[in-house]
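Project channel, design review

CF: Before we commit to the Algoriphagus pacificus constructs, I'd like one complete example in the thread so the newer folks can see what an input/output pair looks like. Taking Tetratricopeptide repeat protein.
RD: sounds good, go ahead.
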Amino acid sequence: MNKFSKLGLAVLLFASACSSERDTFTNRTFHNLTAHYNAYYLADLKIKNVEEIVKTNYKEDYTQVLPVFIPIDSASIQAGVDTLQSARELASKAVEWHKISKWVDDSYYLLGKIDYLQAQFDDAQNTYKYVNVNSKDKDLRHKTLISLLRLYVDLQEYENANFTIDYLSKESGINEENRYELYRTLAYYYESRGDENGVIGALVKALEYVNDKKEESRINFILAQRYQREGLDALAYDFYNQALAGNPPYERSFFAQLFAQQVAELNASKDLKKVRNYYEDLYKDPKNKDLKDVVVYEMALFEEKQGEIEKTLALLHQAAKEPGSNPRQKGYIYQKLAEINLAKFKDYRATKYYLDSALTFIKEADPVAIQIQEQKETLDQYVFHVERIQGNDSLISLSKLSPEEQQLIAENFIKDEEERLLAEAAAQEQPKSTSIFDNLLAFNDRGSGSTFYFDNAVAMQQGAIDFYRTWGNRPLQDNWRRSAVSFQSTEPTIAEPSESDSTATDDSSNPLNQLPDLETLLDQIPDSEEEIATLNLELEESYFELGKLLYFDLAELEQSVDNLETLVREYPTSTRKPEAYYLLYLAQKDLGGNFQQYITRLNNEFPDSQYTYSVNNPDAASGNLAYLASSKNYEQAYQAYYQSNYREARSIIQKTLEEYPLTRNTERLLLLDIMVTGKLESRQRYRERLEAYIQNSKEEDLVELARNMLRPMMSSEELAELNKSDSTALDSADLANPDLVENQGEDELPESPYKINDSNTHIFVLVMAPEEMENAPNLLSDLDNFHAKNFQNARLRTGNMNMNPQNSIYIISPFGDAEKAKEYYKQFLNDFKSEGISEEIKNKSFVISIENFQQLNKTKNLDEYRTFFKSVYK
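CF: and here is what came back for Tetratricopeptide repeat protein:
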């Protein structure tokens, strides 16, 4: 009975200790031990396991500056989702079951950490703030604030980050472990802000408190990289050597030694043979078998510094073929090839394809990939139009030949392709060597490495071609000679291998699959007027777009002129002709050439075009006063027309157009002048001018009126083909009242009168009140400096005009399309500074297409356009 009594007493004591409500010494001791070792410790261990998975799965790219923190990969987190869920349950138990233990706040911190790892940032932020406010453990609060600081930097909430940094800077008693994390997080903050000196300073401080030798090695390597890029080779050398301590991974050791040699000796060495021998030794070292691409790449960069461009290119091509452990390295190799082809040869086509290759090895989210993609957009368009011009020109030329000539050309093309494949096979047959230079085709002229047929790529290629000529392009399969197969046909049937066919193999790597089929080639040649017309329409578009792109984006003015001249010569009826003349005028003006000829052509062929008035009056006034004056003159001209004083009316119209060519009355004045033509000149001239006006005018109401004026002169056949419209014709008397014309059909207008046309030429507009203009005396010179610094090759022009009595505007032009205009707008907001130009004034600026600017100049409703601008361009 005594034993049972003692056992019962123990059970009662244990049961009373399990209570999470009673705050006694026994209860606290029990809950502290249980919460610590049964919950918190295990949860913390599981979180560290997941963090280790993130580190293990991350592939360091030592050719680039290493990030301060290893990025958290969602795939790694997903792989450890069960572990994190288990950790969450354990930490939650520590909070719910052991409320009186001292590990509750620590467990809350772990819950916040789990939320952070799983990208549940709002929950993580709230949990960290809760711990900071409620915890009495100073070290835990510091650790929580440092984690909160990292979260703010992730979210780019720099104001909150600055507040947290300021708060921590005033805290005393921060332990060494927290100081280490604090300085690392500060380095991350400066890294995010692009502050090189801040990163270096914070990491140097972090080294004073680091305990992990591997982490110390990594920080030393980062500092060495950053010092090297700052040109401080002596400091970089010291830190590369320090990075070798602490038993770092082999790759880090390799790069530390490689880069240390570069900054200490290779860059300054005059003994080129010694340097090349150094790279040869690295290349031959069996420990570097997975880093051969890096060695050859670094050798290529060295040869580039010596001005040996041919050797550099050969080495880069070799590096692309070498084995490597980091796929991104291949991307950097192709990126370097693109850079050289662009800078040295201006080979835009090769540059585009090298950048395409680079992107196959670099992840989309990588900043380098984003940079490449932005660079490639223009090149993609360039190559598309160049290749379309080449292809369509060739097809149209072939269409003019006889069928026999077409077949002969196709056969010769196939023969050339066969020879190319044989040459490629011969190139692949070069014997392997342990020397970098022996691996370069430029330094190697050896023959085939084997006489055995299946080891001889040239023999196999020749055999494959002979087989193709006799039997056609057959898949690999058993019994291919069976009688059921019509192998004697000139059009051999290619059997599709089925999943159940065990003998069928994937022959996608068979070089014969690259051989074009004769019938396929001949089928591509157009044989009807419709097909040729389609090809010509595509050519017309490509010549224009290529000319525009070469002028605005690539600054290749001579090539731009060549393409635009081809357009206007080969396609004289093109609707793009007026703008082509305008671009040719701009290009020849920049080249110092004969731009006057395009002013003459515009005046002769398109006298009523907006581009004609632009070249005739580049500095003409077009503000609100000009609008009022032109309106008054318009009323006088119309009154003279109404009284049959046609010559007086024409005189007033022409004088007004010369003085005020770009007002919202311009289109009305032009149409009134055409009406005068109908009274003074021939019926044919009247019709020609109406047709030209309909083609070039942008004001729909006036165009509809012109169509109605044209209808009586059209034949029944022409009227049948005319696109019917339900619009009500305006009476010519309405022209006397501009406001009436503007407000006509207001209820039927769409929600916005502006149109989305990203490919249209754009301008940038800075809107200011008159008093604001007076307070900005240096605006024009500051704009010129801003353009010289940031848009040196853009050939931007600046002008100003009065929009209305309340607003004047500065116009910066031209931009080839919306994207270029938006790039300018973004940089203007971020970087432009001038006395009297406040952020409020800058934020009122906008970009607008020339077509939409005409509409804006008509309505003067800036708020209406800004609504459109915010919805489309931002």
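RD: helpful, thanks. The CA atoms of residues 569 and 656 lie 34 Å apart.
CF: The first helix runs from residue 2 to 17.
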